[in-house]
Amino acid sequence: MGSVGLLYVGAVLFINGLMLVGLIPGKSAAILNFFVGTMQVVFPTLIILQANNDPAVIFGAAGLYLFGFTYLYVGILQVTGFPGEGLGWFSLFVAICAVIIGVIQFTSVNDPVFGSIWLIWAALWFMFFLVLGLHKESLTLATGWFTILVSFLTGTIPAFLLLLNRYETGGGSALIMALAGAICLAVAFFLASRGFPHSTTADDTATASTA
């Protein structure tokens, strides 16, 4: 995933996390979802058209569609008010694909840090599935906080490291990333257990929102 695209993945995850915890309304979050979703569909399409059938380039671009379609789906739901079950089950599909891509990052691409990042994304999208697809509204706050924390861990920070040409990968760094993801999940559930923030809109957004 390109560093610029990754930066805006962090941005939209941050906004959608705030939406899930009820700090901003869904229609406000829809705008950035449309912007980033469009970017994450147009850019990989251009990359694939110019890839000359290079499997490695096509593979690198293909995963971007999972994010692009998610964000466009979110934007449409927030604007129309349609129910979110379809997005929830699509999120399960994304989670499964993210696990596969994560394994490939470890085994074939030789980028274990992004292998860990993809597995963290798999966990996040699985939580979207639980909230939207299975109506586990009790997980909405935890999912929102996990989204916010993951936006920086897997989006903003790696993007800046890539932009500054300081990104390094390896087994030790991958383990640190995985542990950081687990800590983010634990912190998210802790904040949710405290009911923070206390907002009546958090439960409302659970029916039609995700990252």
From TrEMBL:
Pfam families: AmiS_UreI (PF02293)
Major localization class: membrane
Localization in the cell: Cell membrane
Bilayer-crossing regions: 6-24, 31-50, 56-74, 86-107, 113-132, 144-164, 170-192
Record's bilayer topology term: Multi-pass membrane protein
Keywords assigned: Cell membrane, Membrane, Transmembrane, Transmembrane helix, Transport
Record family assignment: Belongs to the AmiS/UreI family.
Name this polypeptide is given: AmiS/UreI family transporter
